[in-house]
Write a structure and sequence with these properties.
alpha/beta; Endonuclease, Chain A; 2 domains; 7 helices; 62% helix; elongated
Length: 242
């Protein structure tokens, strides 16, 4: 009887141990992705972003940046802030510098804020809305054929911890400042263009008025003059309300 009890207890202990091992092996793999599964899930996170996407990728490659270009464009169309941290172009082989510069410039034209970090940086992370953290071995903007691993963590504290550790907060503040300055300059330029348009319209109205007056004086067509005045008043009202 004693031997059966000991054996039964040992059976239960082994069973519980096996169950715990299965749980411990199963739970982390839900958040782990390789180079084949990462981009699909990461793109979903980016497209679901509400405010901000941060990509910290030491290396970039035209192939991968072109591959992500449509997603980045959709984010910018929704006015989602996108920040990229990478190495300076000068640190690449001279053979690849022109195409890398071209790819980065296209991103900047879309409104992406790019920061070039000096020193030998090797961290690879991405943060979405400062709540979802991606970290691992994969260079998000350059990976092509290498075997990699990335972990996804949906935790605000972890995301903020990484941001503080890498010193991103000050640079992000600088990026937002530059972004708002660009918006302000754009508004000023549009205002100047509108002022020029107003001057052109006013000049055209003045010319039409002079021509109408000339017709009235030289041809003595009073009805034409009156209709011309009414037409000009109508144009000025429409322009004023617009």
């Amino acid at each position: 009887m004693f031997n059966q009890t000991v054996a039964f207890r040992q059976y239960l202990a082994n069973r519980d141990k096996q169950i715990n091992m299965e749980k411990s092996n199963e739970l982390p793999t839900r958040n782990l992705y390789n180079e084949k599964t990462f981009y699909h899930e990461f793109t979903k996170d980016m497209l679901a972003a509400k405010k901000e996407v941060i990509i910290y990728s030491p290396f970039v490659a035209k192939f991968r940046m072109d591959n992500l270009s449509d997603t980045i464009e959709k984010l910018r169309h929704r006015n989602i802030a996108v920040f990229i941290f990478t190495r300076p172009i000068e640190e690449y082989d001279s053979l690849f510098q022109p195409q890398i510069e071209c790819a980065l410039r296209r991103y900047e034209d879309k409104g992406v804020n790019i920061f070039y970090l000096t020193g030998i940086i090797h961290e690879k992370i991405a943060i979405v809305d400062r709540e979802i953290l991606w970290e691992g071995s994969l260079n998000i903007l350059s990976q092509r054929a290498s075997r990699e691993m990335m972990r996804r963590v949906s935790d605000q504290d972890s995301a903020m911890q990484i941001m503080t550790y890498l010193g991103l907060n000050m640079r992000l503040a600088e990026g937002y400042k530059l972004q708002y300055e660009k918006m302000y300059r754009s508004l000023i330029d549009n205002s100047k263009q509108n002022t020029k348009l107003k001057i052109i319209v006013f000049s055209l109205i003045l010319v039409i008025l002079l021509i109408t007056w000339w017709l009235f004086v030289s041809l003595d067509v009073t009805g034409l003059f009156v209709r011309g005045i009414e037409y000009l008043i109508h144009i000025m009202k429409l322009y004023t309300y617009s």
